Amino acid sequence: MEALVLGATGGIGGEVARLLVARGWKVKALNRAPKQGDGLHWIVGDAMKRDDVISAAQGVQLIVHAVNPPGYRNWGRLVLPMMDNTIAAARACGARILLPGTVYNYGPDVLPHIHEDAPQRPITRKGVIRVEMERRLKDSGLPVLIVRAGDFFGPKAGNNWFAQGLIKPGKPVTAIANPAAPGVGHQWAYLPDVAETMVRLVERAEALPLFANYQMQGHWDADGTQMPAAIARAAGKPELRASAFPWWLTLVAAPFVPVFRELREMRYLWRQPVRMSNARLLAVLGSEPHTPLDVAVRHTLEGLGCLTSGVRPSYC
Where do the NAD(P)-binding domain residues begin and end (predicted)? Predict the structure, then answer.
C-alpha cells in the first residue's frame, strides 16, 4: 500500500506518516523543503500547487491531509485551496482522504456532550473554515475518513494549547498556566494515540462508509486540574500548582499576533466542559488506543525539551 502525506513535518502528519511506514506502507511526503529520514520518500512540492499534489499522489491509495499554514498565518486564504487540491488529487488516483478533525467545528449550542452527528454551527472564523473543508469532502463523493479528537499534545507537536499555553517549550517546567475556568472539564488527545486510531481505521477501510466520521475520547480531564498535575509530576515537582492563563494578554496581542487572536477565539471551549463521544469508534475498533496520562505527558515534555537530564518523575 502507498500513501501521500501532506503536512509530514507537523505533529499529526508526522506521527501518521511514521506509523504507516512501520506498518509496511510506502509513504511519500510532499514539502517545499524536503527533509530526510523516518523512512519517508520526500518529494519537492507545494500543497498550494494542484499539479504538484496530483503528481505526488500518483499510485497512492491514501492521502493524509494534515497540512496547515504555520502560526495561523493567512489561514482563510490558504486552507480551502489546499483542500481543493487534495480532492482533485484523490479524484485523479482514486485515493481515500484522511483528515484530522477538530472540535472547532462545534459551537457552544452543542456543548458539553457532543455526539458524532451533532450540528456544526461554529462561532469562530477557523471553525467556519473547518466546516467548509468537511462539506467539500462530503460533496466530493470520494472515500473520506475524518477522525476528530480533543486538544493535541505529544512529543513532536508545537502548534497546540499544551505547548503554547500550559508550558514553555525548550525550558524546564517552572510554571504551568491553566486556560480552563475553575472546575471545567477538558478533553485532550495524545498524538501517538490519535495516529494509531487513524491507522487502525485505515486498515479497516473496506468496512467503513464512504464518508466516515469518528471521534476519540482521548484523555478526559474532569475538572481541569488533572493535566497540570500530570505535568508537575512528570517534571518531578508535584508541589507545583497551575496559575490562571493570562487571557488578557491574548486581547492585547490579538491585533498583532495571529496565534493569540486564534487562541482568544477558542476561549469558549475552556469556559464549559467539552466532551466528544467515541461510541461510533468503539463500534468499529472495539477499543480506543490509550496511553496512560503520566506516560504521555512525560514523553511530551521530553520531546519539547522541557525535562533536564536526571529528572525523576514523582510517580516513579
Answer: 7-152
- Does this model's pTM top 0.90? My answer is yes
What values do phi and psi take at 90, rounded to 5? -65, -35
**Total H helices, total E strands in the chain:** 12, 14
Question: 156-192 burial, b if ≥16 CB within 10 A, otherwise e?
Answer: bbbbbbbbbbbbbeeeebeebbbbbeeebbbbbbbbb
- Which residues, at least 6 apart from 227, have a Cβ–Cβ distance to it below 8 Å? 162, 166, 186, 188, 219, 221, 293, 297
pLDDT on residue 316: 45
Q: Residue 83 falls within a domain, yes or no?
A: yes
Total domains in the fold of the chain: 1
The answer to whether 297 and 230 are in contact (CB under 8 A) is yes
pLDDT of residue 160: 84
Helix (H, G, I), strand (E, B) or coil at 151: strand
CATH of the domain at 47: 3.40.50.720
Residue 28: what pLDDT? 97
28 near 58, Cβ under 8 Å?
no
209 in a structural domain: yes
Domain span at 150: 2-158+185-224+271-290
**pLDDT < 70 stretches in the chain:** 70-73, 157-158, 254, 256-259, 309-316
Q: Does residue 255 fall inside a structural domain?
A: no
According to the model, what pLDDT value does residue 211 have?
98
DSSP one-letter code for 219:
E
DSSP string computed for 261-286: HHHHHTTHHHHS--EE--HHHHHHHS
Task: Say what the pLDDT of residue 158 is.
Answer: 65
42 part of a folded domain: yes
Cell 499522489 appears where? 57
